[in-house]
C-alpha cells in the first residue's frame, strides 16, 4: 500500500532548530530501540487501519522515513512555517502586511504547505516504478507498460510547482531526469529549510549527476529572471495537490503554459480533501486556456489490483452518493498537453 512506505523517524533524534536543520543530521536505523512509543504506533497505523486514508502526512518540521524499493530509505523533512501548528490542525500565524491587513493568498497557502501530501507520493511511486527494470523472464502486462510510459522521466527536464517537501523532485533526480527544478512560493521557508535539507541529505550520497536546483516562484508572476531564463524549458511539469485556491487557478495555468516545452506534458495529481468541485474547476480553467487533457483517471490510494497494479476508475467531476470517508481514498491523475 502506498502509505505503508512512510514511517516517522524518532523525535528523540530529530533536530530542534527547524526549519533549517543541521546538515550533519543522520538518518536513524529502523531498529532503534529508543524510538518513542507514539512513533512506533504511527508507523503501524497504515497496517492496522488500511482503509483509514490520510491526504497528508507528518507534522511541521517532522522527519519521515520514505522506504523506496528502488532507491532505499529517504529521510524527508516536512516543511515548517513560523507559527505553524504541531498538532496537524493546519493553523498558522500569518504576518500582517504593512497596512495591517493579511495577505489572503499566503494565509490560505500556509494552511496546506507544511505536510507531505499523498498526491506527491503518487507521483514519486509512479516515477520509481517506471524506473525499475522488469523482472528477468517476466512479461509486462499492458497496464504495466502503460504506467511505465506515463511516468517515465529518464532524460526529461522536470519542474515541480508548489514543491513543499519536494519528494517527487528527489525521485525524479534519482530516476535520471536530465534536470530537476523544485519551486515554491518566494515566502516559503521550505526553500532554505525542508527542500534544501531533503536535496542535500538524499542526493549528495547517491550517484546523481544531473542538474538539481530550487528556485522561488509565485504562480502567474513571469517577469523575473528565473521565468525569463526558463520559458518553455521543461518537458515535464509536476503539480501535486496545488489546486485548493480557486483564486489561483488562472495564475497556475499561466505558469504551466509559460514553462512547458513544446511537446511537453503536465502531471496533475490531486486528492479530494477540498472536494471534487475545486479539482474540476481547475481542469475547466486549463482547458479554457488551451490545454488538452490527454489522459485522466481516478486512482485508489488503498487497494492494489491482482499482480500489484493500480486500481483505477473513470474520472467524474461529480460522483453521486460519495461522502467524505470514501472520497479521501481516491485521487485524480491527469496528463495535460498544449492544444
From TrEMBL:
GO terms for cellular component: cytoplasm. It comes from Penicillium vulpinum. SUPFAM superfamilies: S-adenosyl-L-methionine-dependent methyltransferases. Residues 1-38 are annotated as: Disordered. GO terms for molecular function: S-adenosylmethionine-dependent methyltransferase activity. InterPro entries: Methyltransf_16 (IPR019410), SAM-dependent_MTases_sf (IPR029063). Residues 15-30 have a biased composition (Polar residues). This is Nicotinamide N-methyltransferase. Residues 1-14 have a biased composition (Basic residues).
Amino acid at each position: 500500500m502506498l502509505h505503508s512506505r512512510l514511517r516517522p523517524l524518532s523525535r528523540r533524534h530529530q533536530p530542534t532548530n527547524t526549519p533549517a536543520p543541521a546538515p550533519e543530521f543522520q538518518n536513524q536505523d529502523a531498529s532503534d530501540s529508543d524510538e518513542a512509543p507514539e512513533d512506533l504506533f504511527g508507523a503501524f497505523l497504515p497496517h492496522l487501519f488500511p482503509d483509514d486514508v490520510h491526504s497528508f502526512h507528518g507534522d511541521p518540521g517532522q522527519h519521515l522515513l520514505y522506504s523506496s524499493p528502488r532507491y532505499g530509505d529517504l529521510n524527508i523533512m516536512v516543511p515548517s512555517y513560523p507559527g505553524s501548528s504541531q498538532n496537524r490542525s493546519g493553523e498558522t500565524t500569518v504576518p500582517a502586511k504593512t497596512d495591517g491587513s493579511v495577505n489572503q493568498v499566503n494565509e490560505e497557502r500556509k494552511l496546506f504547505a507544511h505536510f507531505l501530501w499523498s498526491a506527491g507520493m503518487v507521483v514519486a511511486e509512479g516515477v520509481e516504478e517506471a524506473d525499475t527494470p522488469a523482472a528477468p523472464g517476466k512479461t509486462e502486462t499492458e497496464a504495466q507498460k502503460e504506467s511505465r510510459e506515463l511516468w517515465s522521466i529518464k532524460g526529461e527536464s522536470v519542474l515541480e510547482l508548489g514543491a513543499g517537501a519536494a519528494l517527487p523532485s528527489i525521485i525524479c533526480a534519482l530516476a535520471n531526469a536530465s534536470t530537476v527544478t523544485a519551486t515554491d512560493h518566494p515566502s516559503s521557508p521550505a526553500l532554505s529549510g525542508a527542500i534544501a535539507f531533503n536535496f542535500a541529505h538524499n542526493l549528495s550520497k547517491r550517484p546523481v549527476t544531473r542538474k538539481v536546483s530550487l528556485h522561488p516562484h509565485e504562480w502567474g508572476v513571469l517577469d523575473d529572471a528565473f521565468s525569463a531564463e526558463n520559458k518553455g524549458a521543461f518537458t515535464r511539469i509536476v503539480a501535486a495537490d496545488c489546486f485548493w485556491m480557486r483564486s489561483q487557478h488562472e495564475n497556475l495555468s499561466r505558469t504551466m503554459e509559460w514553462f512547458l516545452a513544446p511537446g511537453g506534458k503536465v502531471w496533475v495529481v490531486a486528492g479530494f480533501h477540498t472536494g471534487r468541485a475545486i479539482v474540476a474547476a481547475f481542469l475547466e480553467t486549463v482547458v479554457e486556456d488551451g490545454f488538452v487533457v490527454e489522459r485522466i483517471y481516478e486512482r485508489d490510494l488503498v487497494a492494489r489490483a491482482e499482480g500489484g497494479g493500480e486500481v483505477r476508475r473513470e474520472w467524474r467531476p461529480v460522483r453521486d452518493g460519495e461522502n467524505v470517508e470514501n472520497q479521501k481514498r481516491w485521487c485524480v491523475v491527469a496528463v495535460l498537453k498544449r492544444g
